[in-house]
Amino acid sequence: MLPVDESLVFSENTYYENRVFNNQGFKYFFPNLKTPYTVIHNGFNPTFFNDNLDKKIPNSFISVALTDDFRRFQLKGFDKIFFLANEFQECTFTLVGLKDQFKNKLKSIPKIIEVLSFLSQEDLLIYLNKSEFYLQLSISEGFPNALCEAMLCGCIPIGSKVGAIPNIIDKTGFLMESSNNNYIKKEFKSILALNNAKRKELAHSARKRVENEFHIEKRQNKFLDLIK
Hints:
It is built from 10 helices and 8 strands. The protein starts with 10 loop residues before the first strand and ends with a helix. It has helices spanning 26-29, 70-75, 78-87, 100-103, 121-130, 145-152, 165-169, 181-192, 196-213, 216-227, and strands at 11-12, 23-24, 57-67, 92-98, 113-116, 131-136, 156-160, 174-176. The chain is of the alpha/beta class. The strands form 2 sheets. It has a 6-stranded parallel beta sheet with strand order 5-4-3-6-7-8, sandwiched between helices. It has 2 domains: 6-43 and 217-227, no CATH class; 53-212, Rossmann fold.
């Protein structure tokens, strides 16, 4: 087996308030499994996903996930982004991946949220380059590729403490310990209080984190080593 992160082998998941299980990973659900495994992280191209901090719109947030039903809407944390949009009118939010047929089922979409059903990779790059923060508030997650792509574009990451998210973000952004709305609102206020110097520092460190730890060449080399 070739899991893309150690969290898929075993990890704690205490973020979601209404969780059924406190732990995740195949070793938790199948403790007697003896199949050998090697962790090989996903890899990304820092040349294509380049950062341009001069284009960043202050207090702009983006999140990307294919969403076509209410289950995935909650799973990917889009419900929390709707909550934040209603609480922080001075910010702007962009959601990429909400299918049109599902979007029409939503009762109301906050006016400060731009909803896009699809973007080409080139257009996504434009949106990532002008967004200051990236939100990954999933209640369950494997290894979110869009989070890494956003970090390469200098987006400051804000993620839930589930799956590979803590390992990806490390100390370059912010981890939400709980899905409680009051807690998230309090943490969000602290994030918005960051000065410009600290924001640029985090943006640079986020890119370096992915560039150093999850470069596409590292993934290629690990595959070649395994084959040999």
